[in-house]
Amino acid sequence: MKAKAICLLAIVLSLWSCESARNNQELDRIPAYKLEFNKLSSTWDEAIPLGNGTVGALVWENDGKLRLSLDRADLWDLRPMENLDFENHGFDWVKEQWEKDTYKNVQDRYDAPYDQLPAPSKIPGGALEFDVKGLGEVESVKLNLDSAICEVKWKNGAILKTFVHATEPLGWYTFENINEELNPTIIPPAYVSVKQEGANDPVTGQDLRRLNYDGGRVTQKDHIITYDQKGWSNFQFQVHTQWQPTPKGIQGSWSISSQTSDKAPKETAEQVVTKSLQAGMASSMESHIAWWKSFWDQSTIKIPDPVLQHQWYMEMYKLGSAARKGAPPISLQSVWTADNGKLPPWKGDYHHDLNTQLSYWPTYSGNHLDLEQGFIDWLTQYKPTFKKYTKDFYGTNGLNVPGVTTLTGEPMGGWIQYSFGPTVGAWLGQHFYLHWRYTMDRDFLKNEAYPWIKEVANHFNELSVLDEDGKRKLPLSSSPEIHNNSREAWFGNMTNFDLALIKWTYSHAAELALELGLKKEAEQWEAAIKEWPDYAVNEHGLMFSPSLPFNESHRHFSHLMAIHPLGLIDPSNGTKDMEVIEKTIANLDATGSSQWVGYSFSWLGNLKARAFDGEGAAKALKDFATSFVLPNSFHVNGDQSGTGKSNFTYRPFTLEGNFAFAAGLQEMLIQSHTGTVRLFPAIPMDWKNVGFSKLRTEGAFLISAQKQDGKLKWVKIVSEKGGTIRLMNPFSNKEFSMEEDVNSHWDGDVLIIETQPGQEIWLKP
């Protein structure tokens, strides 16, 4: 048995060595980025994050003990939200209360319960703790991004290596060079406690004890610990760990499983861990490292700004840790639920008035559509739930989605101008469109993308009414999160937010119908667009609505959706659109950032990239990376720098700002939303040496390119599905070579190339 343990350890250490050798070989292509500190964090939200979209862990120190905060994406209290009675209190009733100036009735019924009640909510899973006081002082804490492995070293020579497996619902830990017994304990979340009950603030997190759970059961035998916890109704979950001694250390595995009476887990946590230990850590680490190697091979960037480049790699690491096909979508905190005796900020739910959308922005040009697929699949799975909500609340036969939902797509209420917003389904529909455009998957176009967008358009057809000018409008319109939750947050005229989403829906329904040969349907959608009014614009650019100019700082850029992300107002449309864009962004800058949060700066980076303002885009992203993230890279809404970039200085952790940052940097390097690919469209003048590999464009093309000393050295195009690529001339003139014999011609400054599936084309000056 001892010889077997020594052999196992040798294999594991060999894999660590091989991993390091591979990293050195990849340095020219994939920077060996890492998080590195000289001590463990003392708070959960600054911990080292590990995850795989289903389970996650945070590595930190709590009262002298090394703590692994464990989480699983489907740990949810799904008790029904009180007062969501749509039968007699639907959209017509809301409009009636608004008109009668009795809107408090709406707030009491639909908004107050979200603030006052603890559930439905995401819930935490527990923690593993190791008493490491005897190990002395920590020397270093590292997270190697290329392998997603965390390593903690103590000055006495002790080492911890831990990781969450890339594809399996389990984690591993191994301590080396220790001379004392160091066994873990499982710490249940504080569902039951003798302490006085805490506050019920949904932003800072309500007290876990308000869920009224009975205490869980922790059982221990030899080197095995199991924690079983019952939640609301028939929900329960299990945390399990097993470990075994090694020469001068221990090695163990953990897992979390969840189940209801009608949905048992494929395997319990105990079964997962038992099987993993039988296979061994060496085998698990090998497949784990292979997955991450493949992940980092999907796309890379190289820019001369070390702050922005490091932040991009941190965001992509978190994306790889938070999203998977087959796993729930990215919620507000994904698999890193708060470990502080409270529910997570905003209950860790799914906010579809911005948060989920921004979280998936980098998957498209970043060439990670496999990770985006989990979101698409979830939206498709719960489409019947969304259609029922649409019928019950709005009375239409089309499709809309609640703006705030549970794990199973049920509405949760809150500020209903946004949690029940009339155009939420349209913004989510853009993800279906983008999935089609970046994959060119015709089956997906026919069976999922067009049906979704068509049903959203039908919802608008049935919901809209005619105004006194004969134009269509919504009975009530809104613009997240303008006027917060007051009666004035509803508008009697069309906001630019709703109008942009409606126009986008009709225009793209027409585009997709035509692509499918449905000419008559395309003509109907084209005709429908003309029935709606123009955008509200004044001398300062886009307004919130015809009755409200943009004249105050606000965190949500809802009024300029038409510019980004929808691309309806775009420089490619001519000087008139460019004037609107420049005035709108200038007004945004002039109004100031006092009421912004972190994601505002990320979004601004995307906006300025669309306006070809490289310096402005880089500055906005630098402001985000230096002021609105914690040392572990988590986005925390408020300004942490003390430099006054925002009046908000609080620190609730959410992820959308992180992922919008990554998308903004990609927008600086490549754009294809107009149907024409632009390389380096928005980089600062002093970025002389910059490049990227395998960024994806609409049309399913993978592009790599490099600039050196300010001049483009080469471009590589890989055509996945074949077809035509339109490339804005990236060279200083039209004198360059293509190493393939291809059919190409010029349309002004646009090079048009006909490609074959799988074809690789090199362009060089």
Q: What tags apply to this protein structure?
A:
alpha+beta, 35 strands, nine-stranded antiparallel β-sheet, six-stranded antiparallel β-sheet, 19 helices
Structural overview:
By secondary structure, the protein is of the alpha+beta class. Among the domains are: 34-78 and 117-297, Beta-galactosidase, Chain A, domain 5, CATH 2.70.98.50; 672-764, Golgi alpha-mannosidase II (Immunoglobulin-like), CATH 2.60.40.1180. It has 19 helices and 35 strands. It has a nine-stranded antiparallel β-sheet with strand order 1-8-9-10-11-16-15-14-13. β10 and β11 (170-176) form a beta hairpin. The longest helix is centred in the first third of the chain and has 25 residues, at 2-26. Residues 1-28 have low confidence and may be disordered. Residues 671-760 form the Alpha fucosidase A-like C-terminal domain. This is Alpha-L-fucosidase 2. GO terms for molecular function: alpha-L-fucosidase activity.
Termini Cα gap: 64 Å
Judging by the overall fold, what is the CATH architecture of the domain at 34-78 and 117-297?
Distorted Sandwich
Supply Rg.
26 Å
Total beta-strand segments: 35
Uncertain stretches of 5 or more adjacent residues = 1-28
Average per-residue pLDDT, rounded, comes to 93
Overall spatial form: globular
Residues in helices, as a percent range: 25-40%
CATH-derived topology of the domain at 34-78 and 117-297? Beta-galactosidase, Chain A, domain 5
What is the C-level CATH assignment of the domain at 34-78 and 117-297? Mainly Beta
Q: Classify the beta-strand content into a percent band.
A: 15-25%
User: Strand pairing plus helix content: what structural class?
Assistant: alpha+beta
- In this structure, how is the largest beta sheet organized? 9 strands, antiparallel
Find the CATH superfamily of the domain at 34-78 and 117-297: putative glycoside hydrolase family protein from bacillus halodurans
The number of helical segments is 19
Order of strands, widest sheet: 1-8-9-10-11-16-15-14-13
